[in-house]
Amino acid sequence: MDKVEVVVAHHERATLRVGDVFLKIDADQARTDAEVEAMELAPIPTSEVLWRKPPVLALAALPGTALGRLGEPSTASAAAWAAAGAAARMLHDAPLPPRPGRSADELAAHLDDECEWLLTHDVLPADLVTRNRGIAEAALRPWTPVFTHGDLQVAHVFVDGDEVTGVLDWSEAARGDAMADLATLTLGHEEHLADVAAGYGTDVDLDLIRAWWSLRSLLGVRWLIEHGFDPATPGCEVDVLRSQL
């Protein structure tokens, strides 16, 4: 090895890559505990835990490459996207994990706070916030909880050819809404929604996925700004909100 690569770094955690080892440094050990537990329970491939010495968790690199990146066109095949959908279905069909997720009421309260902040600080045009909030509210209904990854973004799904080799970053895994995972997976990659739905099989509600696109984007803008990221990067959260109109 000849370098240390900073994969991601913000106020809550950082991930470094040294050769074929990823070092996750997290100030919240309860979050790391939940991540390791979820990886042990998940019925789909995950990274091997090499060692753990708080606050550091060492994970083996997964083979293959990320399915894609938010804000960039994906070079993965339609079959690879379908395989990601099939992996999500396998996860959602597994026994529920012990960790409870956020309820629709908790998400609604969070949405209220974030929309107020966006408008008060003039971060986004009022009509963009208001109209996306109306779309997002469709997701805030009772759902049958499943084993969700919680942050199933394309950068966390690794593929080799047309096969999923593993899924990263289980720190948000909990009981939740299946459509939330599918929405996160396809956020900013609407052109692959049909592929994911085909791989997932039945029970895919496209309207709810679109509602979750608005919800996730509205909830994420402030966090991204406060942690040094730009949600207005082409193809990212602000563009997703605009595309919803």
TrEMBL record:
InterPro entries tied to this protein: AGP_Transferase, Aminoglycoside_PTrfase, Kinase-like_dom_sf
Record flagged with keyword Transferase: yes
Superkingdom, natural source: Bacteria
GO MF: transferase activity
Domain Aminoglycoside phosphotransferase: from-to ranges: 38-202
Keyword Iron: no
Record lineage: Bacteria, Bacillati, Actinomycetota, Actinomycetes, Pseudonocardiales
Keyword field: Transferase
Protein name: Phosphotransferase
